[in-house]
Amino acid sequence: MRVISGDSVGGHPGERVALAHLAGRRCTDVDRLARRPGVSTAADPAAPASAQVNAAPESELRHFLTACCDVPAWVDAVVAGRPYAGNEALFTAADSAARGFTAGDVDRALAAHPRIGEKPAGASPQARWSRAEQSTVSTDASSATLMAEVNRRYEARFGRVFLICASELSAEQVLAAAQDRMTSSDATEAAVVAEELRKIALVRLRKGMRT
Fold first, then answer.
1. Rounded to an integer, what distance in angstroms lies between the CA atom of residue 211 and that of residue 203?
2. Residues whose CB is less than 8 angstroms from the CB of residue 191 and which lie 6 or more positions away in sequence, other chains included
3. What gap in Å lies between CA 138 and CA 130, rounded to an integer?
4. Fewest beta carbons less than 10 Å away: which of 50, 141, 149, 157?
């Protein structure tokens, strides 16, 4: 699988630390805030996702959202929607923005996704999430051979890597979906790829925000 504007909004420093951690980077400004006397450095695990997003410094939020889905217009839309009244408002806004992915958006985002069956190494958010998303896809020699062949045929047919939201899917289900999609028209498959990208973005947003 090739599986905002304005200054930051104030909030509990622990929430800022949580988001900086989720985005996979160290933020010295956030660390400095957390070390002030009388301020806890522990992230609040009960903080709603919307509260974390509302309180996050813009640079950390952008970095985190880009890790979820590298589509600048989507990142801009989610950031611009702050403050969110609650989790439902946040995820509804993220979903709505993702339904507007263009062909160019999809091409850009695909560059951040490994082929299905290729679980990337490293500690980046994208690598961790990709490994988790493919955790139910078998890695035995037979499945790996079939996946490699599917990837080759799909790329020859459509000129892009095969993208699917593989969360909770078995190798058999992934292979069946690939075989089925191989017969699609270019326009139909482009729409399917955009939809799979939308699902991946929302899965990562929810997981990343500890919901």
1. 10
2. none
3. 14
4. 141
CATH class entry, domain 108-208: mainly alpha
190: number of Cβ within 10 Å: 15
In angstroms, the CA 33 to CA 51 distance is: 18
Q: What is the pLDDT of residue 131?
A: 59
> Structural domain boundaries of the chain?
13-97, 108-208
> Residue 121 carries which DSSP code?
-
The type of residue at 174 is V
Pure H helices in the chain: 13-22, 28-34, 49-55, 58-68, 72-80, 87-98, 103-110, 125-133, 141-158, 171-181, 186-208
Cα 56 from Cα 62, distance rounded (Å): 9
Q: What does the alpha-carbon distance between residue 44 and residue 58 come to, in Å, rounded to a whole number? A: 19
Determine the Cα–Cα distance for residues 182 and 145; give it in Å rounded to an integer: 18
How far, in Å, CA of 92 to CA of 191, rounded? 20
Cis peptide before 83 (omega within 30 of 0): yes
| pLDDT tens digit sequence for 114-163 | 777 666 656 666 656 555 555 555 567 788 888 889 999 999 999 999 99
DSSP code string of 151-166: HHHHHHHHSS------
Q: Rounded distance, CA 48 to CA 39, Å?
A: 19
Q: Which pTM was predicted?
A: 0.72
CA atoms within 13 A on the CB side of 164: 26
